[in-house]
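Async update (no meeting this week)

Hi team, since we skipped the sync, here's where things stand on the single-chain job. The sequence we agreed to prioritize is pasted below, unchanged from the tracker. I ran it this morning and attached the output directly underneath so nobody has to dig for it. Comments welcome in thread, and please keep replies under the output.
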Amino acid sequence: MFKLNAIQHSRPSAAISTLADLPITKPRNSYTKIVDGRVELIDGRVSGSRQVDDKFCFRFFPLVTEHINKINAIMLEESHSISNIVFKSLAGLRRALDYYLTMPSTYGFKLCDGTADDPRLRHLKKLEHLVNEIGSDITAVYNTKNQEQVNQEQYIEEHEEIWGQIFEENLPKEPTETMQLYIKLGRFVSTQQESVVLYRICRRKSQDLTKRHGTSSSNAQYANKD
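Output:
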């Protein structure tokens, strides 16, 4: 999915994940081992089929401040359709807003369309006013899209239906083994139509993150829950 969207980027080489350096590793399990870089079944295990006593191991790691700031920045960039932004403390809220509003408007962050009624710009101004109200004196840094970027976004929207049809035509008639695992772990898509809807949502979000990281909020508030 990421590569598919990166290819459509105006500068594919610049279409990178802002969280690409997170120390995420593949989960391990109790019935395999790594031998010369390859996954093999442990001694005595004759099949890779799942058993009731199998264990799965997921590595937990602490987040450094820079990663926390980036994650909060993505959240603020995507907050256009929500009415509340909740932080545990005013100090945490101020740090997140200071970082987001003053970070360079690169990789598609804080990209406005330049019109007077641009919801993204209104959102940035509201966040700027909010952070000033709680003691900061920063000014929001943002950029304005050019016509080429506007045309590219319109092109993608026009072809959204085509991608959905291609996805629908290639869906398996029955859930794959991986899908069945997700169904057991929790609710997963149960129909082709629901799968297509999920695909379109994920694809749109992925495009936003890759190309311009979303749109803005028209009614951002905060709550102190200390």
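Quick observations from my side:
Confidence is low (pLDDT under 50) at residues 188-192, 212-226.
DSSP finds eight helices and eight strands in the chain.
Reply here if anything looks off.
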